[in-house]
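Re: [ENG-882] Designed sequences occasionally contain unexpected residues at chain ends

Forwarding the minimal case from QA. Structure tokens:
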């Protein structure tokens, strides 16, 4: 566990009068279906449940299920890489006031267990979205100077990057909404049905597009795409491990360059929340180009304002993969 976090739990418990989960809630997804569009104004004025989502994909899925029945806060600010993010005292206070907390699990939120254990919020419904998913083992993380492992989980937490697994996560989130707000269960069920169908369609797009392509190997910035690759017959060669906050040593760089030359790799993928310097260095060494492959760990304010969401970013990823694997 990161240094200083336990002290924040004590401070946070004293700040329970703070509203929200430290950030201002965004408006609910205007496309969230399920409710009758001709519902009375009294339904719109009903008390909304308060939801804290641990980081972007959990937030986006919560928006889609919760629609206009919930006030939803993304705990990790836009543009921040979530693997090493730490909750502040105000975030802990926000959890004390919330009705529902949604997190991925599988080792993604290293702070979640300690934070939850310290809460006095007896009504809080907690959803571990990855519960029930078949988890992939991750490569061992490097040790820091103290001898502790940088990554706390032995599994790959990036479950949401397979549309099939994302569907399971969304179902778990739907059940959490229904438990926190049983009067609106039918509303949440209808929203889930809509987006589950969209995830099925996205899955078919990936399968039908990627299956006939001749190349199957992708070199990626960090080990985030195991679930996507397992679903569609691809192999990821990660420059870094499950966490994207360190640089590879010269031996690993040489290994990646040699592999890329042997397999005639034409694209080295980077991601927006991490510096592309290493990917650019490898691409230059082998005469390849770079392109973005987004692990959906967070979107910028500009992307959000432009209407980007899980589905649009995943389709951008599919376009990038198609161009690289032809």
């Amino acid at each position: 566990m990161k240094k200083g976090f336990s002290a924040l739990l004590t401070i946070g418990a004293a700040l329970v009068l703070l509203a929200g989960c430290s950030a201002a809630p965004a408006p609910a997804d205007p496309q969230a279906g399920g409710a009758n569009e001709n519902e009375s104004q009294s339904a719109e004025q009903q008390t909304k449940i308060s939801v804290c989502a641990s980081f972007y994909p959990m937030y986006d899925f919560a928006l889609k299920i919760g629609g206009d029945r919930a006030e939803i806060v993304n705990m990790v600010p836009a543009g921040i890489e979530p693997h090493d993010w730490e909750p502040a005292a105000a975030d802990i206070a926000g959890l004390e006031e919330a009705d529902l907390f949604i997190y991925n699990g599988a080792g993604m939120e290293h702070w979640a267990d300690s934070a939850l254990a310290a809460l006095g919020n007896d009504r809080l419904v907690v959803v571990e979205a990855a519960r029930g998913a078949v988890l992939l083992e991750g490569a061992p993380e490097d040790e820091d100077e103290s001898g502790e492992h940088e990554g706390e989980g032995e599994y790959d937490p990036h479950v949401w990057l397979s549309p099939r697994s994302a569907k399971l996560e969304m179902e778990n989130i739907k059940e959490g909404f229904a438990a926190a707000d049983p009067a609106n269960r039918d509303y949440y069920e209808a929203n889930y049905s809509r987006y589950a169908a969209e995830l099925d369609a996205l899955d078919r797009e990936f399968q039908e597009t990627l299956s006939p392509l001749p190349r199957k190997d992708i070199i990626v910035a960090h080990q985030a795409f195991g679930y996507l690759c397992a679903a569609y017959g691809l192999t990821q060669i990660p420059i870094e491990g499950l966490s994207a906050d360190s640089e590879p040593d010269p031996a690993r760089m040489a290994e990646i360059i040699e592999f890329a030359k042997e397999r005639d790799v034409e694209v080295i993928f980077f991601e927006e929340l991490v510096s592309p310097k290493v990917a650019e260095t490898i691409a230059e060494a082998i005469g390849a180009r770079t392109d973005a492959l987004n692990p959906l760990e967070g979107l910028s304010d500009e992307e959000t304002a432009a209407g980007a969401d899980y589905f649009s970013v995943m389709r951008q990823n599919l376009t990038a993969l198609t161009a690289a694997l032809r």
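QA comment: On inspection the terminal residues look reasonable. The two ends are 43 Å apart (CA to CA). Proposing we downgrade this to a documentation issue.
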